[in-house]
TrEMBL record:
The name this protein goes by in its record: 3-phosphoglycerate dehydrogenase
Keywords of this entry: NAD, Oxidoreductase
InterPro entries, per the entry: D-iso_2-hydroxyacid_DH_PdxB, D-isomer_2_OHA_DH_cat_dom, D-isomer_DH_CS, D-isomer_DH_NAD-bd, NAD(P)-bd_dom_sf
An example Gene Ontology molecular-function term: oxidoreductase activity, acting on the CH-OH group of donors, NAD or NADP as acceptor
Annotated family: Belongs to the D-isomer specific 2-hydroxyacid dehydrogenase family.
Residue ranges constituting the D-isomer specific 2-hydroxyacid dehydrogenase NAD-binding domain according to the UniProt record: 108-295
Native source species: Putridiphycobacter roseus
Pfam families: 2-Hacid_dh, 2-Hacid_dh_C
Domain called D-isomer specific 2-hydroxyacid dehydrogenase catalytic: residue spans: 6-316
Signal sequence, start to end: none
Length: 318
């Protein structure tokens, strides 16, 4: 049986699938040619990340397709319910990339708090002539310890981020639709302890107490932004925002307005409303740190993703 890993899969995943009797093809097929390729080559499974979409028209046009896999968490690029109604298996790897995304967020929290991202832009060109003025410009950093972070969406990634934040001495407020007590494991010098966090479901009630906000929610079904003008107006001045979830979760127009007005100190975006062609004013803004949707893009995460996909495929189709 043949599997098309259209957006790639780790060598470990390929090896596991081949041992399970599958043929894996990693040649990328353009979206407009996907239906023809699946039918012509007889693929029983197609694996995607965020670049390829598998919508109703693909599902209807490929009667021999048995499985759709998403290497990662969010499946908003797949018509999941429709595929399952048609009898297809739809799988993903929700836990494989949690630590990688959490570490990217932490890197941004440190970088934004100390102006590192922007300093790295200007030092190569003006550092030898404007050293003293740049030293003054970046001399108003702040520490993470003692600050409060609101983690919006407290699934696996949110909980992984919470463990890092707690380790840095931050106060964590978990905002989630599920109001419950979470036990966050911390490993310290080889010893494990747990910290309990009680989540809240009322974002507006806590928003003005947050020094940092990190988003870990799927794209909203109605297309609305979780953070828009209303939310920004209610925030504490000087807040720092990180979006490593989905483009559109933060209204980019409102974000730029909030930054330019001094309400938002800085922001980091790993995802954008108009991927793969983000707005130039977003990318060029000196108070926005941008990365090209690399939250899960570590060697370790991709290995885990490939292995977990292979395990599920072998169990379901082998």
């Amino acid at each position: 049986m043949k599997i098309l890993a259209n957006d790639g899969i780790s060598p470990e995943g390929i090896t596991a699938l081949e041992k399970g009797g599958f043929t894996v093809v990693t040649t990328n097929v353009p979206q407009e040619q996907l239906i023809d390729a699946i039918n012509k080559e007889g693929y029983v499974g197609v694996l995607v990340r965020s670049a390829t979409t598998v919508r109703k028209e693909v599902i209807d046009a490929c009667p021999n397709l048995k499985l759709i896999g998403r290497g990662g968490v969010g499946m908003d690029n797949i018509d999941v319910a429709y595929a399952r109604e048609k009898g297809l298996h739809v799988i993903n790897t929700p836990g494989a990339s949690s630590q990688s995304v959490a570490e990217l967020v932490m890197g941004n929290l440190f970088s934004l708090s100390r102006g590192i991202f922007h300093s790295n832009r200007v030092m190569p060109s003006t550092g030898n002539t404007e050293f003293k003025s740049l030293k003054k410009k970046y001399a108003k950093g702040q520490e993470l310890r003692g600050k409060t972070i609101g983690i919006v969406g407290f699934g696996r990634i949110g909980q992984a981020l919470a463990s890092y934040c707690i380790g840095c001495g931050m106060q964590v407020i978990a905002i989630d639709r599920k109001v419950k007590t979470y036990s966050i494991p911390l490993t310290l010098q080889g010893q494990q302890t747990n910290v309990e966090i009680n989540s809240v479901d009322n974002f507006p009630a806590v928003i003005d107490s947050l020094d940092y906000i990190s988003l870990h929610v799927p794209k909203q079904e109605d297309g609305s932004a979780v953070i828009d003008t209303k939310e920004i107006d209610a925030m504490k001045s000087g807040v720092i925002i990180v979006n490593a979830a989905r483009g559109g979760v933060v209204n980019e127009d409102a974000l730029i307005t909030g930054i330019n007005a001094g309400k938002i100190r800085a922001a980091a975006l790993d995802v954008f409303e108009n991927e793969p062609a983000p707005r130039e004013d977003i990318l060029a803004h000196e108070q926005i740190a941008s990365t090209p949707h690399i939250g899960a893009a570590t060697v370790e995460a991709q290995t885990r993703i490939g292995e977990e996909l292979a395990e599920q495929i072998i169990e379901l189709l082998g």
